Amino acid sequence: MKKDILTLLDIEKEDMDLLFKKAFDLKEKQKKGIVHTPLKGKTLGMLFDKASTRTRISFETAMIHLGGTPIFMSTKDTQIARDEPVRDTARVLSRYIDCLAIRTFSQDILSEFAESADIPVINALTDLYHPCQILSDIMTVIEFKGGYENMKIVWVGDGNNVAHSWINAASVLGLNLVLACPEGYKPNQGIMEKALENCRGKIEVSEDPFEAVKDADVVYTDVWASMGQEGEHTSRKRVFKSYQVNSRLLEAASNDVIVMHCLPAHRGEEISEEVLEGSKSVVWDQAENKMHMHKAILEALMA
Ligand code: CP
Ligand code: NVA
Q: Rounded to an integer, what distance in angstroms lies between the CA atom of residue 30 and that of residue 26?
């Protein structure tokens, strides 16, 4: 049966651990210049409705390194933009390509693609989740901290798509996750409840970033206004102003805390320039690891 990655709840802990192991192995292979092309002759379709730098290029590069071919499609240039139904598009694409990565607004549309397609469908970000991002982020936590067990991971800012995928990861892997979000911008209640149903970890939500980051091993933030929320940017800047990850906030965290951000970053908003460019920031390694993790995912789904 084909396997989709629509949310992190689709992946068992054992399979996630295998993905981390595989991603490190692929990273090492690449650093040593070892050619590894298990996806020769395979094609990855990439249907994107929203902007992307990292996810797009890391998936495309991952596919090329593995011997396969990525095909990028901007939704607005497809017949979807002229109302061809999702289910028709999904069935037709399934006749051409071996896997489909989608970046879109609605999680329901993504699910509709997955239901109608005969090929694996990967969530490359929706309004609700960004699962592949968090897989590569946990790879980065393992790289810098030696593992994810017993780590206090603190999310500061908007309870958004990236936060939701952290919540799912905490449930599956048993993470200690604290989210500090202002009132009205906390994670989706339904997503929280679902993650808590079979939760191996500890997930707490608070409104106080200083209390939350106490003894944190990882502090993570993301933009205050996600793609599609541009019109709320000004009002959100007011709401979130005391949620900036800056040097003063980090004083409350553990001495060897690492700072993560999925990028793109808005310096002076959710993160200060000093912290983003400072010694605790691992954001460039974090961005690199997206490519290694995407390779592991593509190999697992297609090889
Ligand atoms: N982190 C991330 O998904 O970046 P892009 O929007 O550039 O793909
Ligand atoms: N929360 C952000 C993540 C970008 C990678 C957004 O959805 O725009």
A: 6
Distance 34 CA to ligand 2 centre (A): 33
For the chain, the domain total comes to 2
Asked whether residue 294 falls in the same domain as residue 202, the answer is no
- Over the stretch 27-59, which tens digit does the pLDDT of each residue have? 999 999 999 999 999 999 999 999 999 999 999
Note the ligand closest to the C-alpha atom of 124. Answer: 1
Based on the fold, state whether residues 188 and 229 are members of the same structural domain: yes
Range of the domain at 88: 8-129+287-302
- State in Å: Cα 195 to ligand 2 middle: 21
Q: Return the best residue to mutate from 50, 53, 226, 260 for the ligand 1 pocket (most ligand atoms within 8 A of CB).
A: 53
Whether the CB of 54 sits within 6 Å of ligand 1: yes
CA atoms of 170 and 189, how far apart (whole Å): 16
- Give the nearest ligand 1 atom to 50 CA: 6
**170 is a domain residue:** yes
% of the chain at pLDDT higher than 90: 100
CA distance 40 to 131: 26
Query: Are 219 and 254 in the same domain?
Result: yes
Nearest residue to 100 (alpha-carbon basis) of 82, 81, 117, 75: 117
Residue bearing tokens 């202002």: 182
Confidence of residue 1 (pLDDT cuts 50, 70, 90): confident
**Residue of 262, 266, 285, 289 to mutate, ligand 1, most atoms within 8 A of C-beta:** 262
